[in-house]
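Whether sequence alone determines local backbone shape is best considered at the level of individual chains. When preparing material for the folding task, we compiled for one chain both its residues and its backbone structure tokens. No coordinates are needed to read the tokens, only the vocabulary itself. For completeness, the protein is quoted in full, as a sequence line and a line of structure tokens:
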Amino acid sequence: MSQAVKERFYPVAMTIAGSDSGGGAGVAADLRTFNALGVFGTCAITAVTAQNPAAVRRIDPIPASGVAAQIEAVLENIAVSYCKSGMLFAAETVAAVAETVAKHHLKLVCDPVMVSTSGSRLMQDDAIATAKKELLPLASWLTPNIPEAELLLETGITGETGMIAAAKKLASQYQCAVWLKGGHADSANCVDIIVKEGKTYTLTTPRLEVPPFASHGTGCTLSAALAATLALGMPWKQAVCESRAFVYGSLAQCVPVGKKIHAMYPPVEDSIQLVKLTAAE
């Protein structure tokens, strides 16, 4: 045959993020999500954390060259369809990840993890500056929550109108799709804002009352689910709805893992009927 036949591989996603010894967030949550959604998971660990759902006790960054080496080793012979970045912590790590993403033209969901649910800083100030300059412009998707968007834009965000304005500004600034998560907002429903290709959408689910610490890892799980569904080849509207349903179900069907401690867990029941994607304008 004169025309080469393109090989077909099982869908593969990669997480570039920190570990979570408590299992609720970071690489642990990402690989669990990849597996639950039927995607083969690979990883590059950026930092080793000593944490549980209530507190981050210690952070030991992996040298930037070591992070880059992990990514290179995976890409050497594994066909990664999509990757996500999470906790990067140090400026040197951000720069190394950006260089590798650019070199290999990786499709990237960038979750700008800056502060843990328990309030610990997970990204140094100079790392934020480096991410804004070098990494975020390479992203296909950016998935900040409201506090992270406020740090990126250096301004406050109030109400749905403020979220729409912020998402539009981020999308214009970094020339990517933006999924601004509304979990921190005070509203009856959980309303996220998506800006994609110049159009704005609201993504709505009912707001859940969850047990203590059950929401630990929601951002990691969401960005991992998005990377996984895109790796599966889903159209983006289906991908965001399936990802939101996966997070909702993981919260609704959380499991007790300790005394007064619950954790998200891949759902058995599908919640897609509760997810509503609507054009905002």
